[in-house]
Amino acid sequence: MPVDIAHRFRPFGSSIFAEMTALAVRHQAVNLSQGFPDFDGPQSAKEAAARAMFEGHNQYARMIGVPPLNKAIAGSWASCGRGEIDPDANVTVTNGCSEAIPAAILGLLNPGDEIVVFEPFFDFYVTAIAMAGAVPKFVTLRPPADGLGAWWFDPAELRAAIGPRTRAIIVNTPHNPTGKVYTRGELEFIAGECIRHGLVAITDEVYEHLTFEPELPHISLATLPGMWERTMTLSSLGKTFSLTGWKIGWAVAAEPLSRVVRAAHQYLTFCAATPLQHGAAAVLAAPGDYAAGLRRLFIENRDALSAALTRAGLRVFPSHSTYFVMADHTPLRYADDRAFCYHLTERVGVAAIPPSVFYGTPGLGRDLVRFAFCKKRETIAEAIRRLDSLGPA
Question: Can you give the pTM of this predicted structure?
Answer without folding.
Answer: 0.97
